[in-house]
Every structure is written in C-alpha cells, then in structure tokens.
Amino acid sequence: MTRPRAAWYRALFRLLLAAMLLSLSQAQAGGEGKGFKVGLTAVFLDNQTSFIRQWEKYLARRLGEPFEFVQRQSYREITQMLAKGQLDAAWICGFPYVRYRPRIRLLAVPLYHGEPLYQSYLIVPASDHVTRDIEDLRGRVFAYSDPDSNSGFLVPQVELLRRGIEPARFFGKTFFTWSHRDVVVAVADGVAQGGAVDGYVWDTLSQTHPQLTNRTRVVARSRRYGFPPFAASATLDQRRFERLQQVLLGMSDDAEGRRLLQKLNLDGFTSGDDSLFDGIREEVALFERGKR
Asked: Where does the chain cross the membrane (predicted)?
C-alpha cells in the first residue's frame, strides 16, 4: 500500500471513529437507548398484570427502546423513587404531585369523559339505607385507600376539618386497604361501614364488576379535581420528556392505543396544566393547618 493511500485510510478511520464517538456521546447525553422506567402502584392499577405487560410492549414499540413499569404498593414508595430520579416518570395522585413539586413535573393527565377531572366518592354498604352524609358515620369503621391519595384519604379528612371535626377522633376505627378496589371490597363485605374511593375507579368497576359495586351505595360525590397525573422526574432529559409525553398523548391516534385506553376506561391523555391541581393545593394547605 502506498504512503498516500495509507494516510488516506488512516484519516478516514479517524473521521469515522470521531463520528461514532460523537453519536454515542449525544445519545448518552440525551439518555436515549437506556430505556424508560415508569412507576405504577396497586392503589390505582390493581390485579391487572396482563394488561400492564401489554401496555409496556406498546410503549416500548412506540418509543423505540426498552420500557418497564415498576410497581410498588404505595404512592409514597413510587413518588419518593421518582423524586430521587430512580424513575423517569410515574402515574401518581394529585396529592403527592402537589407535595413533591418542584422535584417532579407534570407529564400528562388522563382524560375521563373528555376532561382531565375526577371526583372522590363516599360509599357505604348497599344495605345501609340510612347514611346520607359523612357525619352519619361517626364512631363507625372507615376504609381509606392510601395516606397519599387525594380521593381516598385527603378529601374526607378535609371535609371533616371544614366542619370543625377532628378526623382522628371521629371514626371508631380506620384502616388503609392500599388500593381503591379494596376499599370497595371492604365496604361491600361489611368490613367497613364507609369508605373513600376514587370515583373513576368505582365507575369503572361498576362496568367491569357490577356484582361488586352493586353491594355498595354512593352517598356523596366531591367537587372535581385534576385527574391523577403522570409526573416526570425533574432530572429527566427534556428530549426524553417530550418523547414520552408525545407517545402518551398519541395513544388515542392509533387503533392499538385506543384499545388500551378503552381497557383503562379513558379517552386519552392531555399535557394538562399545573393549575388543574390548585383545588388539591387548597386542601393540602387546610389539611396541614389541621394537623398543627
């Protein structure tokens, strides 16, 4: 090989190597290719392992890289992992979303009946024809879903505080079920004489498991709040944030995405606005004052 040709090959090799290193560094800077880890809790998606695997596969294909749902029992476990940057994003509740700002940021909000809103339901056994209000449950056994749930804990606590009632002394006994579905089960079975549950979950169960919800009665529906959102870690790279957001928002645009949304009993996702959670912020402030 002549010297000019050898020099040309060396120059070409250096150029190709530099291009490869630049491409690699850019991918690493954007976090691309490492996969997404997104948190879920049993509070919201309970006993739906098969569906979760289907959703994982769909999101992985749409994102073009590995995708994993990380499941934990409580909102607190998942939200703390998210705030520490151990997760890229998570489907949480508006209560921890408000509390953990600015370590987390709004990624997407589900649309239910066309709006990013939902309610808390106060439920009692269907055999209870007397209870008309939360004050009728004084001294009774009451089921909450999760201590970081807006609909399953914060709403009834604040309702009592607004009436000048100390929640800790109001009920005869309280307990956490760690899922909204299990609040319904506890009330239906008479283990609890009342419970607070996510209205979206109760409505969905009334379609899929009417034999369960028919054994309960909705006593009261709260005002409407921002629907439990998908939140991202503040450390998530902006390009990856936008990619994940676009895929979630685009689920309603393709047949498979719509099929998955139908199983979730949702219409789609919107980017939403932080002001959706102002109502929860007001209640958190009242709740914190009530604890002093």
From this structure: none
